[in-house]
C-alpha cells in the first residue's frame, strides 16, 4: 500500500542543513500495522509527513495505494493523528471530529451519529460542545484520534497518539485500535516511543537510527 | 513550601460545569520531589496551574513560600515546563531559553553562557539558532525543560515534561533532573503518567482520582 524509494529529506534551518531522512527504502503491505520507533529528533514525524504529502522529499519517490503521495492526499485516502493534536480552536469538539466527514460530503445526520460514536469510543461523551482549549492534554489527543478514525480511512497515520495518556486509558485505546484494525483491515503506520506498545500492536516494527534518519532494522512480530 | 487548603476549581464550559478540582488539601515540604499521577482529565494540569497562579481557584487558599500564589508568580519564584511546550515561535531556541534570565536582568554574557549550558544538558547543542517549529516534538519539550531550569528556580513545576521522549533520552533526563535536584535542593512538583518514573524520581507520590479531581492517596517513597 505504501512504498518509499531512496527518500531523502534535508531542511535548511538555523544557518545550516538538517539531514532529517537519508536514503529511506520502505514497503508497507496493505493491512499491515507498522510501528516506527527511534530517538527523539531522528525523523519519525518527518517520515510520516512525507507519506502524508505534508512534506515533499528532497529526493526519492513515494507511492501510496499505487499513486503519488500528493494524489492520495487529495483523494483523502488517509486519516492522520498528529503529534500535537492540531484541533481547530474555533470549532466545538463535535465539529472537529465531523470535519473529515463534512469534507467528504457525508450528510448531516449521519455525520453527527458517527461523531457521537467516535466520542464514545475515546470516552469523551459529554464534551461535544467544549472547545479544544477547555480540554486536558490527553483529552485533546483523544479527540485527534476520534477525528482520524471518523471516516474509516483505509490508511491511518498516527504520530505518538497515546503518549499523553495514563496507563488505563492507554491500554484501553490500544485494544480498541487493534479491534478496529482487525475488523476494517485498514493499514496503520504508528509512531510510538514505547517498545512494549509497538510489540503489542504491530505486525512489524521499524527502528530508525539517530539523525540522519535511516532505517536501522525491520522486525516482523 | 507549598500549601493548598480546600482548593476547588470549577470551569464553566460546553453548556455545563466541569468540576476539575474538589476540596484539595495538599502540603509540599521545601526540597521535596513530589510526583502527581492520575487519569487523563482528572485535574493534574489544573492543580499545577493553580499552584503557579495561572488559574485562580474557585474556592480555597494557596500559599507558596509563605506568600500568595500570585505574589510568588510576580516574584518569579518558580520555573515551569508546560504540557504543551509553549515556546515562542518568533524567537530562536537560544533566546527562548534566555527569556527568564532576561526577565530577571541577568547580564548578556552570563545569559548566553547559561543558555549554552542548558542546551548541552538537554543535548540540543547546535540548535541554538533554530526556530521552535523546526524542532521535533521531543526536542521542543527538551527546550521547555532547559528554559524552566535556566535560572535555577527554588521551585519547579513540570507537567509531563518527558512524555514525548524515547527511552534513552527519557532515562538520561530523569537522572539529570535527580542530580540537579540533589545539588540545588529545589522543590519539584512533577506530573507524569509513568508510575515507574514517579517511583524512581520522587520522595512522595500523590495519586488523584478521576474527575472531580481529589487526592486519592499520598505515598512516601
Ligand atoms: N479552561 C478550561 N475551561 C473549561 N474546562 C477546563 C479548562 N481547563 C481544564 N478544564 C477541564 O478540567 C478537567 C481537568 O483538566 P486538566 O487539564 O487538569 O487534566 P489533566 O489531569 O492534566 O489531564 P491529562 O492527563 O489529559 O493532561 C478536564 O475535564 C478539562 O476538560
Ligand atoms: N520544518 C523543519 N525545518 C527544519 N528542520 C526540521 C523541520 N521539521 C523537522 N526538522 C528537523 O528534522 C529532524 C527530525 O524531526 P522529526 O520531527 O521528524 O523527529 P521525530 O523523530 O519525530 O522526533 P520526536 O520523537 O522528538 O517527535 C529534527 O532534527 C528536526 O529539528
Ligand atoms: Mg515526532
Ligand atoms: Mg494535563
Which descriptors apply to this entry?
4-stranded antiparallel sheet, 6-stranded mixed sheet, 29% strand, globular, alpha/beta, binds adenosine-5'-triphosphate, homodimer, binds magnesium ion
Please, could you describe this protein's structure?
Two copies of one chain form a homodimer. The first copy, chain A, is of the alpha/beta class and 221 residues long. Helix content of chain A is 35%, strand content 29%. The first copy, chain A, contains seven helices and ten strands. In chain A, the strands form two sheets. Chain A has a six-stranded mixed sheet with strand order 6-7-8-3-9-10, with helices on both faces. A four-stranded antiparallel sheet of chain A has the order 2-1-4-5. In chain A, a hairpin with a 2-residue loop joins β4 and β5. In chain A, α3 packs parallel to α5 and α4 crosses α5. The two termini of chain A are 19 Å apart. The model of chain A has no long low-confidence stretch (mean pLDDT 95). Chains A and B meet through α5 and α6 of A and α5 and α6 of B.
